Amino acid sequence: MGIRMLLAATFLVVLSQSSAWSGRAVTDEEERMKLAAALTAEGCSGGEVEFDKGKYEVEAAMCRDGKEYDLVFDANFKLLGRELDD
Hints:
Blueprint: H1 3-16, H2 29-41, E1 44-45, E2 48-52, E3 55-63, E4 68-74, E5 79-84
């Protein structure tokens, strides 16, 4: 596993425990690893993560352009949308 993926996964683990959204926290290790890989593929890492209404929502992920985005992935970790975080 590459260092970037390991760092992203670690960051997701910490942040998923403090999610303030209404869905459930991302707690399964395999689920966290797949989401970290999906974020890395998009050039992003970190953020507050939850699973809600069949989708993974990542709030305030830091992306390679230096900006924070909210990202939404489907249950198969395919990116559904990206929006600049307010």
